[in-house]
TrEMBL record:
<feature type="transmembrane region" description="Helical">
    <location>
        <begin position="340"/>
        <end position="360"/>
    </location>
</feature>
<feature type="transmembrane region" description="Helical">
    <location>
        <begin position="166"/>
        <end position="182"/>
    </location>
</feature>
<protein>
    <submittedName>
        <fullName>Chromate efflux transporter</fullName>
    </submittedName>
</protein>
<keyword id="KW-0812">Transmembrane</keyword>
<dbReference type="Pfam" id="PF02417">
    <property type="entry name" value="Chromate_transp"/>
</dbReference>
<keyword id="KW-1133">Transmembrane helix</keyword>
<dbReference type="InterPro" id="IPR003370">
    <property type="entry name" value="Chromate_transpt"/>
</dbReference>
<keyword id="KW-0472">Membrane</keyword>
<feature type="transmembrane region" description="Helical">
    <location>
        <begin position="203"/>
        <end position="224"/>
    </location>
</feature>
<dbReference type="GO" id="GO:0005886">
    <property type="term" value="C:plasma membrane"/>
</dbReference>
<dbReference type="InterPro" id="IPR014047">
    <property type="entry name" value="Chr_Tranpt_l_chain"/>
</dbReference>
<feature type="transmembrane region" description="Helical">
    <location>
        <begin position="275"/>
        <end position="294"/>
    </location>
</feature>
<dbReference type="GO" id="GO:0015109">
    <property type="term" value="F:chromate transmembrane transporter activity"/>
</dbReference>
<feature type="transmembrane region" description="Helical">
    <location>
        <begin position="79"/>
        <end position="104"/>
    </location>
</feature>
<keyword id="KW-1003">Cell membrane</keyword>
<feature type="transmembrane region" description="Helical">
    <location>
        <begin position="116"/>
        <end position="133"/>
    </location>
</feature>
<comment type="similarity">
    <text>Belongs to the chromate ion transporter (CHR) (TC 2.A.51) family.</text>
</comment>
Amino acid sequence: MTERKFGFGAAGDVFWTALKLGLTSFGGPIAHIGYFREEYVGRRQWLSDRSFAELVALCQFLPGPASSQLGMAIGAKRAGVLGALAAWIGFTMPSALLMVAFAFGAQAAGIGGAGWLQGLKLAAVAIVAQAVWSMSRTLAPDRPRATLALVTACAAVLWPSMAGQLVPLLFCAIIGIAVYKSKAGAGAEEGSGEPPIPIGRKLAAAMLALFIILLIGLPIASGWSGSAALTLIDSVYRAGSLVFGGGHAVLPMLETELLSGKRPLLTSDQFMAGYGAVQAVPGPLFTFAAYIGAAMETGYARIGYAMISLFSIFLPSFLLVLGALPFWERLKRNKTAQSALMGINAGIVGILLAALYDPIFMDAVGSAKELAIVIVLFILLQIWKRPPWQAVALAALAGLLFL
């Protein structure tokens, strides 16, 4: 491995490397991890395969965008806290700028009734369907976990609220511990016992405490103030704090918060157009938050809202990654945590399945022609293994020509 350095020079190296990945990493979080390994382990040799695998495992334990968290963790190992920040900015900035530009363009052109918009909504149906299919094969491969996924889907459909998502996930965690604790942790390697980054445990504990304070305090502040900005910050911060499973899994929580709450911030057309567009850009799907902030306002205020929305959805990941890393050597060998996560991941599949039905399918597909387009897009993604941006481009074209 190359020698680890600290300071602004090392953080600059992290930034430019992450920016390269942010410009070229299509295909979602699993594909991102492959790109990261090639760049950070293969080309630059900033860490070993074993260290890389351990960081991937840590990011699977934490809620939020796994690939962005992995980049932050690698940046932290390379250049401390500045490295984590540089990794996030570099990897996130290209996608975020593209999504803000899309929000400006969509508002200027008007999105109501546009054929290309309907095409983007159909692309979202196919992409989420493909995500449910793929995730179910890895996260719910046996009868107990498949059952948890389907029961969670039923609960989320019949109980369309935040509680309808969190209560089933808690149930899944309990069942996971009961069923899989004896199987968890097989083959786990002993760690060195040394913190993988130069962050003291007191600072790490302070970050975790801040994460909890914001999670509890933002809903109170939002309800008391009535501010649209605080409502946005609260909604996206909680989405980034509580959602396992990456960008696709954040969809139902954001939909519940932004469209169905007491103060809706977006229309369904705006929401689905942005979700379709984010599939066509490189980088993390969580940059959908930048679009949300830009789409809910008019004029140049959209830039400010986009920035606070983007920062708020990634802030939980930043606090959790840097807060958890010093304690990871002990946690990664904890069978209870591993088994709970096995149950939670199965529940995530169910929540995503429920979101596929409502709002995605119910809002987008209203005719045989639209269903046929969805099937063609699904075949393109699942059978022919084409990247999502190609499906999005084809869907927009089909919407212009046929809808």
